[in-house]
Amino acid sequence: MSMIVGQPLDRKDGKLKVTGAAPYAGEFVVPGLVYGVTIQSTITKGHINNIDTTVAQKLKGVLGVMTYKNAMSLHQPTGSDPSSGKFAEKDLLPLQSERIFYNGQHIAVVIAETFEIAEYAASLIKVDYNEEKSVSDIHDPEAKPYQPQQGLGGTSPQAKRGNTDEVLNNAAVKLEQTYTTPVYHHNPMEPHTTTAFWEDDELTVYDSTQGVFGVQNLLSNVLGIPKNKVRVISPFIGGGFGSKGFTWANAFLAPMAAKFINRPVKITLARSFQMFTCAGRRTTTIQKINLGADSNGKISAGKHETTSETSFVDEFVENAGVATKILYDIPNLDIVQNLVRLNRGTPCPTRAPGEAPGTYAFEVAMDELAEKLNIDPLQLRLINYAEKNPVDGKEFSGKNLKECYEKGAAAIGWKDRSDKPSANKQGRYLTGYGMATATYPANRSKASVRLKLYQEGNAVAACCTQDIGTGTYTVMAQLMADALGLPFEKVEFKLGDSTFPQGPNSGGSQTMATTGPAVRAAALEAKSKAIQLAIADKKSPLYNVEESAIGVENGRLYVINNNAKGETYTQLLSRNKMPLIDVNATTDVTLKDGEKSAAANANAKKEPDNPFAKQDEKMDREKYVFHSFGAHFVKVKVDSLTGMVKVEKIASAMDIGKILNEKTAKSQIMGAAIFGIGMALMEGSVYDPNTGRIVTKDLADYHVPVHADMPEFDVQFTDKPDYNISLVGARGAGEIGITGITAAIANAVYNATGKRVRELPITPDKLI
Amino acid sequence: MHPFTFIKAGDNNTAIKAATENAASKFIGGGTNLVDLMKMNIEKPDKIIDINILPLKEIKKLSNGNILIGALVTNSDLAYNEMIRNKFPVLSEAILAGASAQLRNIATTGGNLLQRTRCYYFYDTATPCNKREPGSGCSAINGYNRIHAVLGTSDKCIATHPSDMCVAMAALDAIIHVQGINGERKIMFSDFHTLPGDHPEIENILQKGDLITAVEIPALSFAKNSAYVKVRDRASYDFALASAAVALDINNGIIKNARIALGGVATKPWRATEAEQALIGKQVSANSFKDAADIALKNSKELKFNSYKTELAKRTLISALNKIGGIA
Ligand SMILES: Cc1cc2nc3c(=O)[nH]c(=O)nc-3n(C[C@H](O)[C@H](O)[C@H](O)COP(=O)(O)OP(=O)(O)OC[C@H]3O[C@@H](n4cnc5c(N)ncnc54)[C@H](O)[C@@H]3O)c2cc1C
Ligand code: SF4
């Protein structure tokens, strides 16, 4: 049987997207829709004395101006877990008080018949502030660091093994360096958008979110309405990169405004300023790395101390040391995390929060150590290769990193690299090579799926999860097609609607690893029900045949060693007057940070009815650590005169379990590598040193890579199924691609030029 | 955006008359700069005069060999014009180094001349800016000034002129044709843009109602040996950190004549005549290029975040000179 899983199929939604037919949150036609434009504070700390809205309110077409004086009061959100809905700034519910905690905080919403009127009216509003002294830079002496005890999802950001200080002191070769990464803004193509309308006491919201279920939960919680009265819909998301993983004020402001004027309201954040102040960011990191090794390159101790920022209205920890724990076999290791509160909006997850900046610093430190030791950087990684989880000695559920190193090194031509920097020069152009290890945990959580296998020979499954551009629609359909024995065109996977059974949020690269097994279980059960129906049906050619002797292909059930004997789903179901077979499946396996979390309610948990879900849940996962690994190899060319860097080639080899769709998987890694180019060479937000207001406030000043920056990409996979994580065998792509890549580029620039820039981004001015 | 009325001018005189009568009016060419500024509430015209149907879309060769470029010729049409590519490659290269294909397809020659600075603070109406609001102060001088100018600055404003096209035109001694309420006149390129001085809000010597009708590029035989080099934070779609337009007349390894202009580092398209003079009579060599670069930047005034620009501009200029001089 030819498998559909694994094929590099085009996206199911590709045509819809390129023809503009895919509806995004701001594109739904809602009768009577009007427009909300939000106003942001222009001071960094203090409070509002007065908002004068009189002129604005008199404009024809203005329907109302909502401020802290007249906005509905909100309930404090209770949850802090993104899977069940996390409001990004728990202590700053929008328009509840006159206090200002950061520059760019929402302070009013103008609602008008047209977007243009709302915008114009917004420009006429006068705000009088009482300004106080703010702390808006991580380097400000007033910014006092503290050590947080909890990170994202309750993880511990501090870690210790062995006796680091002493071993470091006595090491033959030592390295101590500090690396900094600037603030990054996610800048998805689609800005945060919410369209909301009320029908009596029922609320419908079209929101651009990475967690539909979480938004429903939060809206119910914060607005104080029963959950079954809130429907959230989000079929397409124009990118999120973490910024839509937490929920931001726009998701509340639109329903508040809709209630305020009794009309459907749409609020879209403006690209300039708004997407840079109230939709999250990746914090600045200052990372100090210590390494100690013997002269053969065996690392005996390491220390990774990070200082990152959070706000005064919530706590977000960018735990840059998280990957350092697992990357190499380092017996003595300290991971230290400091946090500084600033008058800025709250940071939030950004592609591989922790791992992305952390692997930059640590993997550059490895390159520096290799040079000190006079050992090839790839060799240094092999010397310190972790065969087992260095944290607790557990086995990896599947780790084929050595194969990645081999593939990547061959693809880039690593043998052409000179250990001596700036040795490879043609005219004024310098060529350099760099590499780094990539790693990301395999996460998994709970998903429920409802699947209907129709008499017409097609199937539809639904789950309240998201396709954030990653290919969920397509890959889930591939799993369905194979499990049901139906052609790819005859299956459809639906998502992004809170009326569907609950699925995972799209964070931590877990959508596929979580939803896939539930889809598989539902599809296999539907097929099995059909087979059993046939076996028991005297009129079926399959009457009394063993279930295991029956195959299904192209919608036809048949006897495996006698293909002629069989019938289609359609024949079977119509004869039995069954319009459809309707099944539910829930798979509930929680893997967080690479480990199976000890389910507190394991006993209370009901065993699944679905036999395939049962089989999945029963697998022994305690003895493994679930982590993906990979390697990036990079070749750059630097103009020694002007300092301009051109990334010539990126060769990435990833070990992420089974590849379900080579095309979408490659796109994930390629897209992540492009993020890496941005991080390494050009991205970075700047705040005014005097006022704390964002300076790089749009895409003209905040530079993301463009086509002309693109190198040649060579993405390879080990494609080794990991049946320990699930019977689907896939650990999840996505974020792993952005780990290590920034370091690989920085290392290549060093190899080319001999200049070690430890403060990202590596712009031309730093290389001349 | 501030509300405005919109008219389409059918001929030059109508356009000029309408613009002269209304103090808060604006012509619109491609609109790629004006509309952005209107959206950000920086420009608030109450009347927009669309000049796009005026007959100013031709590129023609005059009898004296000069080339006359209509003010409405798009940046793309100008950059890809055969005469320009062959005789004035520096102009073609400069335009193609700017913006994106989509923008160049609609942006006009006249509009490009008048595009306004990309200073962050100029774009942010919540911050003081002398150029936007005379007398309010300059947020950049003591603020984040990485992209700001080191040449031609004043204590009121340090904003760069952002145009690439203009840098090439400065090197080529272009002549700007203007028609105003009192008739037509010609302005030398070097006189057209003004330094910020005490009045950064004034950026050129145009009078109210003046319509740019054309730009004339004087014939210059050695302009075929010309080049534009632009250094920026990414490979395309970005304004210059530093740029250089050069043309060299070289005979037997000796420089007979030179044209040099710099972009990205100055408050107006920056002609470096002293550096040109220094090259004349010199051998094509790394040393003479370096000397010229030092002279071009000798008056550079650095601030906290833009101090790299002096060195970067020198290297950018050397890179352009190398290209024409045949030094690898
Ligand atoms: C994202 C982006 C990136 C860019 N990158 C670059 C770059 O890298 N390099 C670069 O050089 N430029 C760049 N630009 C700027 C671009 O070149 C200018 O916006 C464009 O040239 C302006 O031309 P326009 O016809 O659209 O002008 P408009 O916006 O129509 O007009 C600009 C000004 O000129 C006036 N005007 C127009 N025509 C006339 C006339 N005939 N007579 C009198 N006044 C007139 C208008 O009233 C207005 O004040 C970029 C622009 C954008 C939006
Ligand atoms: S440099 Fe000029 S444009 Fe920028 S803030 Fe100062 S005055 Fe305004």
- The CATH homologous superfamily of the domain at 221-325 in chain B corresponds to CO dehydrogenase flavoprotein, C-terminal domain
Name the hetero compounds present: flavin-adenine dinucleotide, iron/sulfur cluster
Question: What can be said about the biggest beta sheet of chain B?
Answer: 5 strands, antiparallel
CATH class (first level) name of the largest domain in chain A: Alpha Beta
Give structural notes:
The complex is a heterodimer of chains A (768) and B (328). The model of chain A has no long low-confidence stretch (mean pLDDT 96). In chain A, a hairpin with a 5-residue loop joins β13 and β14 (299-310). In chain A, strands 3-5-1-12-9-10-11 form a 7-stranded mixed β-sheet, sandwiched between helices. Chain A folds into 3 domains: 25-133 and 186-277, Aldehyde Oxidoreductase, domain 4; 395-444 and 626-768, Aldehyde Oxidoreductase, domain 4, CATH 3.30.365.10; 446-618, 2-Layer Sandwich (Aldehyde Oxidoreductase, domain 4). Chain A is of the alpha+beta class and 768 residues long. In chain A, 24% of the residues lie in helices and 26% in strands. By secondary structure, chain B is α+β, with helices and mostly antiparallel strands. Among the domains of chain B are: 5-52, Uridine Diphospho-n-acetylenolpyruvylglucosamine Reductase, domain 2; 221-325, 2-Layer Sandwich (Enolase-like, domain 1), CATH 3.30.390.50. Helices cover 28% and strands 20% of the residues of chain B. Chain B has a 5-stranded antiparallel β-sheet. In chain B, β2 (25-28), α2 and β3 form a beta-alpha-beta unit. In chain B, α5 packs antiparallel against α8 (165-171) and α11 (286-296) packs across α12 (308-325). The model of chain B has no long low-confidence stretch (mean pLDDT 98). Chain A binds chain B through residues 42, 116, 119-120, 123, 272-273, 427-428, 639, 641-644, 646, 681-682, 686, 688-691, 693, 695-698, 700-701, 703, 705-709, 761, 763-765, 768, and chain B through 1-3, 40-41, 118, 120-121, 123-124, 126-127, 139, 142-144, 146, 229, 231-239, 241, 308-309, 311-312, 315-316, 318-319, 322, 328. The site of iron/sulfur cluster (SF4) has 14 residues of chain B, from loops.
